[in-house]
Amino acid sequence: MELIPTSGGRIPNGRMPIVGGHERDHNVKLYHAVATVYARGGIVRVPGKTAPHLSGCNFAWGGIERVFRSNYEILKVIPTMTTLE
User: Fold this and answer.
1) Is the pTM of this model over 0.85?
2) Would residue 7 count as lying in a domain?
3) Which domain holds residue 53?
4) Closest Cα partner for 8 from 61, 59, 78, 58?
């Protein structure tokens, strides 16, 4: 698995994001995302969720749900290589 940059809820073409859950109606997939927060003189990477309908990365910070619309990452599958014998 690897993290790739994105924004606006977009799933980059040709990428296979990791499904982390579903909305309550189970019809919309949610994907793992990571927001980078600059706080108290340091950098904190915070797990969150994303999907095209969210238009960003939603994550918990300071007791409320926040949204970064740009400059976050999504977790994706790295295709495995196979060898032919």
Assistant:
1) no
2) yes
3) 2-76
4) 58
